[in-house]
Specification:
mainly alpha; binds protoporphyrin IX containing FE; single chain; 3-stranded antiparallel β-sheet
């Protein structure tokens, strides 16, 4: 009886959602029936994903395996009997002349067959949720979750400003060297004092030179290179601030510079921006500020069209190339870092993919992950067309990526509990990507990068590459495949968080022309980001008024006149750490605030979108190590990767 109630309420709900109501099994025109059938099959595909995937997991390998979402979305422990039950295999759907009714009774009836009375009650909720998630996925095809399918130009998203802007002239003119004089200021307010300080800011390259070192400090928390490599990949799903061609503000280099002798300035163009109603420049990003795998699928329809394989309308797959199952080559001359016309470079969703080998390997990994899901879904759901397979696979990729960010990456970087537990979608969340995050806090990765890139072939066979050998060097991946890079990122420790950046990035970046540390400082000033102490104070922490209050007080004092001048990026990385963590309180609070907001304000965050407990459980039991292991160059060749890849020990 319960089973019939479940099925009927689902049928009713489908009717309501579709604006019809009543007898969906028997009535309606053929078109509606086909539609329902397609929708139900996609729902079923999600169930099949769980069925095929869950039994391969070791139930004890993740704490969340034994937890189930409560109706309010919170997690609560379940008995082991229950978690076993959810791993039971269901019948594979069969083709039928009346697909709607059969699929429906199988999809929703199957549960009644194996559930106890007690679990049927919760199944009622769960089945209703199925339809909700299913509906959201189908809507995503129309209104398009990522906005990729019908977008011609990349999105132009304003970066969010929370702390007030601090430009030297309020109009977006950055200040780079003592001597150049921005607008005169009147009034003796705090703002006046702050501007006075900023008018005598040190040259970014001088600050950078105060933090020169030939070696680097290895991460004392045992963090692995994945801490930066995954972070950079994540960054490239969130932020892409382009520069204008016509407004340059190159950073002057002194003729006495100890390292850069052949150039007189570091090229830097102003970021694209727009004046707001108060005539303050606000910068723009070419990405949506949500974790939605734009780095895999791109931000425009033309890119996605090519990224999908020629047979994607049947298979739902993304395009790959060569026997090694790598990214496709950019034979269409689409926008690509390193040169649009370089058809030896790979093409990914994001144009920065070839910048370095760990990043390129990570992009390739996620395309394989998409195809893993597309193949799984296609195998079990031969009736689904490729577009549906593609959509469901994309939903899985997004969900797993979000899960890894919030359950593994951010807790590893910022400490457990830094970001509040998920409490459902919040319409009023401040969802933009914060300017201070894009131009400063998230660039934390620049200090994590170590001296070299590691190729680990396993069993102690390790080789190193300099970053100069790793920049725009896709041939390395073609020769060696992914395994040595993916393993090397997990077995090699990254650097400590401090204001130091390794020489390859500080003195030799891209043809010896750039200094990433100077660019971090210059970019934050370009964006009107206030000094470190102003940001720290805005979060409720007391100012650090003495250089001795910082971890690198001597170096800071050698270049800044006052602690009120310390640039955001430098200050955050020189701030004393939260006890037991690798980050200081300001960096932690800024990143936690923004990542909580972009999660809470994302209606498509997986825990809002997919409420089926079994599907959620499968996603939550997936670790980044699982993704790496199942997408290795050959079966089981990366099984030796440890469970938490963000730490070496
Ligand atoms: C070898 C490694 C890396 C290189 C060579 C590199 C290089 C660069 C360069 C050249 C820029 C533009 C600088 C500017 O003009 O403002 C940039 C921006 C940025 N980087 Fe990195 N980066 C690396 C790793 C990372 C990592 C590991 C992270 C984070 C974990 C990161 C986060 C960012 C962010 C957030 C931006 C601003 C992006 C935007 O909005 O356009 N980077 N990086």
């Amino acid at each position: 009886h319960d089973h019939v109630v479940v099925r009927d309420s689902v049928a009713q709900r489908i009717g309501t959602i579709r604006g019809g109501g009543g007898d969906r099994d028997g009535g309606g025109d053929g078109g509606d029936e086909d539609d329902d059938s397609r929708r139900i099959q996609v729902t079923w595909a999600l169930h099949v994903i769980v069925d095929t995937y869950a039994p391969t997991r070791t139930p004890t390998s993740s704490a969340v395996t034994n937890a189930a979402p409560d109706n309010d979305g919170s997690m609560k422990p379940t008995s082991s009997a229950n978690s076993k039950r959810t791993y039971s295999r269901r019948p594979t759907p069969m083709r039928t002349s009346s697909p709607t009714s059969l699929s429906m009774s199988m999809a929703f009836g199957g549960i009644g067959d194996i559930a106890t009375n007690e679990t049927v009650a919760s199944s009622t909720e769960s089945e209703l949720y199925d339809v909700t998630s299913f509906e959201a996925i189908m809507q995503s095809q129309q209104s398009n979750i990522t906005g990729t399918t019908d977008r011609i130009e990349p999105p132009s998203t304003l970066l969010l400003r929370i702390e007030s802007a601090s430009y030297s002239d309020y109009m977006g003119c950055p200040y780079f060297a003592a001597g150049s004089s921005p607008d005169a200021t009147t009034g003796a307010s705090d703002e006046h004092r702050r501007r006075e300080q900023r008018n005598s800011l040190p040259n970014p390259r001088d600050v950078s030179n105060a933090f020169h070192a030939d070696g680097s400090i290895i991460n004392t928390h045992g963090a692995s290179d994945w801490m930066w490599a995954f972070g950079q990949f994540l960054t490239h799903d969130l932020s892409d601030v382009n520069v204008t061609d016509d407004r340059s503000c190159d950073i002057p280099i002194s003729s006495h510079d100890p390292y850069l002798h052949n150039i007189t300035s570091i090229p830097m163009s102003r970021s694209k921006s727009r004046l707001d109603s108060r005539n303050v420049s606000q910068q723009l990003s070419d990405m949506t500020p949500t974790i939605d795998a734009e780095n895999v699928y791109g931000t425009t329809s033309s890119r996605l069209d090519y990224i999908r394989s020629d047979d994607s309308a049947i298979t739902g797959r993304l395009r790959t190339s060569g026997e090694k199952n790598l990214l496709p080559k950019n034979v269409m001359n689409l926008t690509n870092g390193g040169g649009d016309d370089r058809d030896d470079f790979f093409l990914a969703g994001d144009h920065r993919a070839n910048q370095n080998l760990p990043l390129l390997a990570t992009h390739t990994l996620w395309v394989r992950e998409h195809n893993y899901w597309a193949d799984t879904i296609g195998e079990y759901m031969p009736d689904l067309d490729g577009d549906d397979i593609f959509e469901v696979a994309r939903v899985m990729v997004r969900a797993i990526m979000q899960k890894i960010v919030y359950d593994e990456y951010l807790p590893s970087l910022l400490g457990e509990g830094s970001i509040p537990e998920y409490d459902g979608y919040k319409e009023d969340a401040n969802t933009g990507l914060e300017n201070v995050v894009s131009s400063c806090a998230l660039r934390i990765g620049h200090t994590l990068v170590g001296q070299y890139v590691t190729k680990d072939y396993g069993k102690g066979d390790v080789a190193h590459l300099s970053h100069l050998e790793s920049f725009f060097a896709p041939d390395q991946i073609e020769t060696y495949g992914l395994d040595p890079f993916l393993r090397g990122l997990a077995t090699n420790k990254c650097d400590e968080i401090d204001p130091y950046i390794v020489p390859d990035l500080r003195n030799h970046l891209f043809l010896d022309k750039f200094d990433l540390l100077s660019l971090n400082i210059g970019r934050a000033r370009d964006h009107g980001i206030p000094d470190f102490n102003t940001i720290r104070e805005s979060l409720g922490y007391p100012r650090l008024d003495s250089f001795d209050d910082f971890l690198f007080g001597r170096e800071l004092a050698s270049v800044y006149g006052d602690t009120g001048q310390i640039d955001c990026w430098v200050g955050m990385n020189a701030e004393p750490r939260v006890e037991g963590l690798m980050v200081g309180p300001t960096q932690r609070a800024i990143l936690a605030r923004n990542f909580a907001n972009i999660r809470d304000g994302d209606a498509y965050f997986y825990r809002n979108l997919l409420r089926d407990p079994e599907l959620l459980r499968a996603i939550e039991a997936t670790t980044f190590a699982d993704v790496i292991r199942r997408n290795s160059d050959s079966p089981h060749s990366l099984d030796d990767i440890r469970g938490n890849v963000f730490f070496v020990r």
